Amino acid sequence: MFARQMFFWFAIGGAVALALTAAPGCRPSTETAPGEHDHESGHDHGADHAGDEDGAHAEPEVPRDYRQAIVQVRAGVERIAKAIETSNLEAAHEPLDEIDATIGHLMLIAKQSGVPRGQWEEVNVARRALRAELDQLHAKIDANQRPDYAAAKGTIEDCLKRLQNVADEFDPKSPSPAAASDSPSEDAKP
After folding, report:
1. Which of 171, 170, 175, 167 is nearest to 74 (CA)?
2. How many CB atoms lie within 10 A of CB 139?
3. Which residues, 6+ apart, have CB-to-CB distance to 185 below 8 Å?
4. Is 72 within 8 Å of 155 (Cβ atoms)?
5. CB-CB contact of 146 with 33 (8 Å)
């Protein structure tokens, strides 16, 4: 009798665990908090860490406002394109890391900046596509190969345009978190 009860609860527990891991949206978030950097994300930037004690480096500054984040991402993409164009691949690492950090936080930034819920999917899809393209460029650079920016440019520009369209569509009169950060009630929101 005891063995049957143990088997029953073991089976139930296994079924629940399987259901939770298989359900989309029940996985842990891949976004990291500002100041954290995922070194397990499948890319190696050992050259970025050359000369750093124990491989640590200063984390890029992540904007708190969606519009500012898009400006930062676009400026970083321009720096990457110029670095690749001039064959200065090492110069592409810093903007790649900055953009990666910002893209990793972009959903949180969008939500906190007042981007309407109906636009969140567009932000998420565009940021993921942009990250995928930039990760491919980063992998080539890490392998000391010159990436083909011209081949990636169309997708990158499309993603930037989609992210910018979201910034342009939501109410510019709504206060951004940067403007509202002085408010004590803003700190109390989750």
Report:
1. 167
2. 14
3. none
4. no
5. no
Cα separation of 88 and 82, whole Å? 8
The answer to whether 180 and 147 are in contact (CB under 8 A) is no
Q: Model confidence over 36-67: pLDDT tens digits?
A: 444 444 444 444 444 444 445 567 788 999 99
Sign (positive or negative) of CA dihedral 10, 12, 13, 14:
positive
* Residue the block writes with tokens 């640590």: 56
pLDDT in tens, 122-172: 999 999 999 999 999 999 999 999 999 999 999 999 999 999 999 998 765
Structure tokens that stand for 137 in this block? 């460029």
Reading phi first (left if > 0) and then psi (alpha if -120 to 50, else beta), residue 114 is in left
pLDDT for the residue 61: 83
In the block, which residue shows the tokens 């790649």? 96
Joined together, the tokens standing for residue 12 give: 């139930």
Cα–Cα nearest to 29, from 98, 97, 126, 108? 108
**What are the tokens at 147?**
């990436």
Distance between CA atoms of 15 and 20, rounded to whole angstroms? Answer: 9
